[in-house]
Amino acid sequence: MSKFEPDARLVEDSYPVTELPLCQLRLMDDARFPWLVLIPRRPQVSEVFELDAETQQQLWREATAVGRAMLTALGGDKLNIASLGNVVAQLHVHVIVRRRGDAAWPAPVWGHGQAEAYDLDRLADMRARILAVVESLNLASGL
């Protein structure tokens, strides 16, 4: 069995935040949106249906719990959860807090405008906020 490694494009475009029971949690490097990516630590998986039923449920639990908590903590108007994989085939789930009037509203965030990279202070602040949210969820218990 091969070892899990996140796709190089995901690594290049995001910052590691923490490890959840199933997924590696990363923050996309676009400060315009609170945008997380969950990457299940399962090598050579590109589709949700390739996971067994229990693992699919865990992926959904992690994505929805993190998303709901982020939406509440950051005061968003809408939560977008999606798995596309058109550019990066490795299975990953986007969790994006949206606000009316954000840089792409109401369109999808993909390919809209120019990404705004995090500066070090803003990155540290967002990582700390995400970690506080994740720690409050007690995800280790499987929810």
Second CATH tier, the architecture: 2-Layer Sandwich
According to CATH, the fold-level topology is HIT family, subunit A
Helix content: 25-40%
Task: Please report which band the strand proportion falls in: under 5%, 5-15%, 15-25%, 25-35%, 35-45% or over 45%.
Answer: 15-25%
Strand order of the largest sheet: 1-2-3-5-4
Evaluate the radius of gyration: 15 Å
Structural class: alpha+beta
- How many DSSP H or I helices? 3
Question: What is the oligomeric state here?
Answer: single chain
Straight-line N-to-C gap: 28 Å
Low-confidence stretches: none
What's the structural domain tally?
1
Q: What value does the average pLDDT take?
A: 94
Helix-strand pattern, N to C? HEEEHEEH
Largest sheet, strands/sense/barrel: 5 strands, antiparallel
CATH class: Alpha Beta
CATH superfamily: HIT-like
**Overall geometric form:** globular
Count of extended strands: 5
Which SSEs are present, and which pair or pack?
Blueprint: H1 8-13, E1 14-19, E2 23-28, E3 35-40, H2 53-74, E4 78-82, E5 93-98, H3 120-137
Antiparallel strand pairs: 1-2, 2-3, 3-5, 4-5
Pfam families: HIT
Keywords: Hydrolase
InterPro entries: HIT-like (IPR011146), HIT-like_sf (IPR036265), HIT_Hint (IPR026026)
